[in-house]
Design a protein that fits this description.
With 211 residues, this protein is of the alpha/beta class. The chain has 8 helices and 8 strands. The strands form 2 sheets. A 6-stranded parallel beta sheet has the order 3-2-1-4-5-8, with helices on both faces. It has a two-stranded antiparallel sheet with strand order 6-7. A hairpin with a 2-residue loop joins strand 6 and strand 7 (154-156). Helix 2 runs parallel beside helix 7 (179-188).
């Protein structure tokens, strides 16, 4: 019988900037993602899953996440909940320049569950970093979110960015699931498995041929 995952819930950058500042999350709506982040934190606490709260930190005067500003502060729904460990980071990955790896090792964590913002940026960097470091990773896709981009390379809506990144994650980097499905898995002590690159591709080809 496989051992139950030793999880930690990583709550990434749930800061006011994404709700009332200059960097508003659009998809999924924050009313959905914030509620699910709270559900995940409460379920983790009830099940003995340690919670790590991460906060992005930029210098004073920065257009977003300026240290000490209202936008930099954690949203009250996260700030008012307990955490087992707290991290300030200055780069996208929650591992870079922090003690996250050491803390996870000291607590014998083998599976990271990611919630928070943004799906395609700090979540993505952390997921790739964790996967390459040997952790199993989970992403709760209804407890995360994206915003739209437009630049010289093109443009994409928040929904497109979120959907595409979640699809890529589930091809092998992280098991993508819903908050309620994750809570059920935690309560049952079960792992959640991702797909793989080859099968994901072959399934897409088969669907295209059948159309």
């Amino acid at each position: 019988m496989l051992a139950s995952p030793r999880r930690a819930l990583l709550v990434i950058d749930v800061q006011n900037e994404y709700f009332t500042g200059n960097f508003k999350i659009e998809y999924p709506p924050t009313t959905t993602s914030l509620s699910n982040i709270g559900l995940a934190m409460d379920a983790a606490r009830a099940s003995g899953v340690p919670v790590v709260v991460v906060q992005h930190d930029l210098p004073e005067g920065a257009p977003i996440f300026a240290n000490g500003s209202h936008g930099w502060q954690l949203h009250p729904d996260v700030a008012n909940r307990p955490a087992d460990h707290r991290i300030l980071k200055t780069m996208a990955s929650a591992f870079t320049g922090t003690d996250l790896a050491e803390w996870l090792s000291a607590n014998a964590i083998d599976t990271l569950t990611v919630v928070g913002y943004m799906t395609h940026n700090c979540d993505a960097a952390t997921i790739f970093h964790a996967s390459h470091s040997g952790f199993k990773v989970e992403l709760l896709d209804d407890a995360t979110g994206s915003l739209p981009y437009e630049n010289a390379a093109g443009k994409a809506s928040a929904e497109e960015i979120h959907r595409v990144f979640c699809t890529v994650f589930h091809s092998g980097f992280a098991a993508v699931t819903t908050t309620r499905s994750w809570i059920a898995a935690v309560n049952e002590g079960k792992a959640i498995e991702p797909d793989n690159v080859y099968v994901s591709n072959q399934r897409a080809i088969a669907t295209k041929k059948a159309a």
